[in-house]
Amino acid sequence: MKTRRKVGLLGALVALAGAMVVATPPETALAHGGMTYPATRTYACYVDGLEGGQGGDVNPQNPACAAAVAAGGKNALWNWFGNLISDAGGRHQEIIPDGNLCGPGTTFAGFRLGRSDWPTTQLQSGANITFRYNAWAPHPGTWSQYVTKDGWNPNQPLRWSDLEAVPFDEVTNPPINGSGPHGAEYTWNGRLPANKSGRHIIYSIWQRSDSAEAFYNCSDVQFGPGSGQPPEEPQPPEEPVVVECSVQYAKQSEWNNGFVAEVSLTNTGAQSVSGWSLGWTYAAGQQVTNAWNASVTQSGTQVTARSSQGAGSIPPGGSVTFGFQGTHNGNNPVPAAFTVNDSVCT
């Protein structure tokens, strides 16, 4: 059985080169994610690189971002959400030496540089804000946010002694209830430290509770005066870009309590679709057990598929195809509707 849906997509991002569909073994289930607000260095430089790039490349214009690329190449930008140590197990200060906090691994070594010209997020001291953290591959865990001490030197690589001893914000298993330009996001409310001014780093550690893997994010911020809840920050309006797409869902095989399905997403519009996220709802209790050529997650009845390679891109006329295996209870209807980047298929 096959169904097709036409969808208008809002917010298609700048073009990236080529459809990035590479087979990933179903058993690979690494978490990935990064702070998008306030923006971590890798994410801020990735966005800067998109704005300065041509032909799908990234070419950061910010001097610190350009220096990071010169030191370690562009792989860290394409994998901005992968600044991690796989076997940290809470031993952060034990295994990360001073100077390496912002880039523990060699891939991200360029982001350790002590400079005062990294892209910054403007914040208000003591304000309540909504932290946003990309949920590229969701997993449970605890996020701890530290801030640099007054008088620290931004022109030196970050040291453990530069940070306040106690995190000003900490959250365990925050909900995935937001959506950013590169997919679903964890979001939670937190209060920024009071009596801070000028340039600082918010240092975030995400320690997974189902694995020893941990993620490290340096968000460069500029604190202004004041405390308490600031007025709602105005967001620049986005110009809607309508892109025609089609979704094809086909059951390849089916047995008494299981099935294999293949899904194809085609960009029939005139602009590339970047950071695609395809969602649907199962109405009869179906469960996805493993997938290939995409990262597929399920929460309750809601299923979300994303590119298994970086931000992912579908050029005009291009398609991405992935497959998965699932279980059912004897009734296995095709999903009634699909969403792509939060736009409903009609």
TrEMBL record:
The keyword Signal does not apply. InterPro entries: CBD2 (IPR001919), CBM2/CBM3_carb-bd_dom_sf (IPR008965), CBM2_carb-bd_dom_sf (IPR012291), Cellulose/chitin-bd_N (IPR004302), GlcNAc_Chitin_IntDeg (IPR051024), Ig_E-set (IPR014756). Keywords: Carbohydrate metabolism, Glycosidase, Hydrolase, Polysaccharide degradation, Xylan degradation. This is Exoglucanase/xylanase. Pfam families: CBM_2, LPMO_10. The keyword Hydrolase applies. GO terms for biological process: xylan catabolic process. It comes from the Bacteria. It comes from Actinoalloteichus hoggarensis. Transmembrane segments: none annotated. GO terms for molecular function: hydrolase activity, hydrolyzing O-glycosyl compounds; polysaccharide binding.
